[in-house]
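Listing S7. Sequence submitted for prediction.
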Amino acid sequence: MTKITFVQQDGERIETNVPNGSTVMEAAIMNGVPGIVAECGGACTCATCHVYVDDAWVETVGGPSNMEEDMLDFAFDVTAKSRLSCQIKVKDALDGLVVHVPSRQG
């Protein structure tokens, strides 16, 4: 199991433990994380699972694919740390990952 922490706008931290091979979006949905809508269910065809990767994790997580970058155009308040959580696969190297949930989804 890999620990993923979601930080809400008010600073509340929601810690989850999910199996490797799932996605950060699935971790959010399985644990009822507010603010992660995931309308397309992880197909990378919407931008409603947008998160900001914590500074300490940006390099480890890596950047978005071209397809993900195209979908991020529909997200609200995109930054260099923006990712679609459906595109981040959970693996051992991400144990302890921290992502921030935006104030609203696109």
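Caption to Listing S7: primary sequence and predicted structure tokens for the chain studied. The chain has three helices and five strands. The beta strands are 2-7, 13-18, 50-53, 82-84, 97-100.
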